[in-house]
Amino acid sequence: MTDYRDKRDAALQRWGQLIADRSSWFDHWRELAHWTLPRSGRFLDTSAANGPNRGEKKHGHILNSTAQRGVGIATAGLMSGASSPARPWFKLKTPHDDLNERPAVKQWLSMVEKRMREVFNGSNTYRAFRQSYQELLVFGTSGDIVLEDFENVLHHYPMTIGEYAIDTNDKGVVDTVYRKFDMRVGQLVQKFGYARCSQHVKNMYDRKSLNVYVPVLHAIEPRRERNPLKADNANMPWSSCYYETSGQEQEYLKESGFQFFPGLIPRWETRAADVYGSSPGMMVLGVTKSLQHLELRSAQGIDFGSLPPLQAPAHTKVNMAPGSVTFVDTTTGGGVKRLMEVDFDVDSVEQKIRQVEGRIERGYYVDMFLLIIGDSRVQPATAREIAERHEEKLLMLGPVLESLHDEKLGPMIEIAFAYMLRGGLIPPPPREMANMPLVVQFISLLAQAQRLVGLNSIDRLLGTVLNAASLVPQAAAMLDKVDMDQLVDVYADTLGVDPTLIVADDQVAFIRAERAQQMQQQQAVEAAPQLAKAAKDAAEAQPVQI
To answer: Which pLDDT value is given to residue 376?
Structure first.
């Protein structure tokens, strides 16, 4: 018992250290939430003030919703462009191309991909992805814990900024996440059992106070002391412990472990040893705030023009309703008139508002993501169109997309594969794949567009060579410098073309050899009549008398 009490105290101490480390980010996140995502974030420890299921009005100070619209479009663009539920966005391969071409391997990989997509569609994966992308765009860091689920294979527990803290290993990879959140008494007993709960929770459960919120701490981190020869929960590489933070006499709610880190913690962009990421929302926070100020001033200017301050004789009641009549005593030297003349150019302010809105939309890459989402009246954009129209933005998003693949989508596929394997949903692989690792290839719209940007140099080279060869006959030999077979292979791999459509090099060599042999035979057949005629003419020729 003392051992568990020590673990609980150590976990609470580590939580205090982690929240101290993130404290410099806290005010920034709070301001981002206030001006961009008012319903996101948990920035107070008291559930009554900022806990779950709070329905107070939080958007009243937002007079222009351009930032919220930009975040919505960018979120939908990331969903459609990086991990669309409507089209394949990843493929599984082995590290060896020749092995990938074998029918049994190809069929097994295709079957596993299909089952994984079914698992994603059947769980809350894509709903969790939406919140993750949204917070990633605004706060620069998003959190999501993926746990095994009996009914749906896996289940996501998305976290909002402020309720969790993370840490990285010596390579800068996130390997620790502590989450403090609230659970109702009924949920607590249902998940962990009556016996594991504190006496305080048991008393509330006995009184049927099932909706009272209780603070819970979930700690996932590398297990520093374990026996690697044992495979039980207490000796797995990552530990997972739940604690009631207010239950002093309670040891722990649950202790388990993982063979892998179950957290998906992508960061938009990190600098040096930063643990948390920066975001587009941070870059446009200033103009987002200035937009609300301009919108307020524009409304005030309109009010001054339509309802100006007035001056009137004493004891005169001015009726401001349209068409009304106000009687004044003209003997006192004046009637009702403007108190001041306000020279306010509404058009100039509205023009400035449009400029600021454009800056916010460019900060969230709205024009590119709108092209990805597409218009229902036109054909959806292809990766080629996106690459041609937004090459500069794609180059800027390149590192972000790589980070998204490394810290979210790639680990998501690995976690899903592990849970499916344990659940018996992965069929036995072919014998030739024994002990063979798998490689994830991303074939989403954004991933293909990124690769297409790299093909522009090839297009320019090929265009230059072909143009020169067509203009100057002597330059036709330049085509010998281009390996057309390799060109086809590079293009097919970059475009994510199904490998079955590309003929292997050895088979191409066989086809060409057979074609050359057929051409030789054809030439021999075509030349046979001429040779026969020549032989006949030679035989009939009269000898020359000397």
So the answer is: 44
**Range of weakest confidence among 73-82, 185-194, 209-218, 307-316:** 307-316
Per-residue 3-state assignment (H helix, E strand, C coil) for 206-262: HCCCCCCEEEEEEEEEECCCCCCCCCCHHHCCEEEEEEECCCCCCCCCEEEEECCCC
Q: What is the mean pLDDT of residues 115-132?
A: 96
Q: Which residues, in sequence order, are CB contacts of 7 under 8 Å at separation 6+?
A: 241, 252, 255
Looking at every residue in the chain, the average pLDDT score rounds to 84
408 with 173: CB under 8 angstroms? no
Burial class (CB in 10 A: 0-12, 13-18, 19+), 230: exposed
Q: What is the mean pLDDT of residues 11-20?
A: 93
User: Tokens representing 312?
Assistant: 């009137």
The DSSP-derived string for 253-288 is SEEEEESS--EE--BSB--TT-SSPB-HHHHTHHHH
Which range has highest mean pLDDT (139-143, 331-335, 339-343)? 139-143
The 3-state secondary structure of 132-168 reads: HHHHHHHHCECEEEEEEECCCEEEEEEECCCCEEEEE
**Is the model's pLDDT at 358 over the cut of 50?**
yes
Q: Is 245 exposed, middle or buried (0-12, 13-18, 19+ CB in 10 A)?
A: middle
Tell me the C-alpha distance between 232 and 439, whole Å: 28
Amino acid at 277: G
Is residue 81 within 8 A of residue 312, CB to CB? The reply is no
* DSSP character at residue 195: T
HSE at residue 501, side-chain half, CA atoms within 13 A, is 9
Is the full-model pTM beyond 0.90? no
* Residue 157: how many other CB atoms lie within 10 Å: 16
Identify which has the larger pLDDT, 419 or 534.
419
Q: How far apart are CA 36 and CA 58, in angstroms?
A: 11
Q: Is 359 exposed, middle or buried (0-12, 13-18, 19+ CB in 10 A)?
A: middle
Phi and psi of 495, rounded to 5°?
Answer: -80, -5
401: how many CB neighbours lie within 10 A of its CB? 20
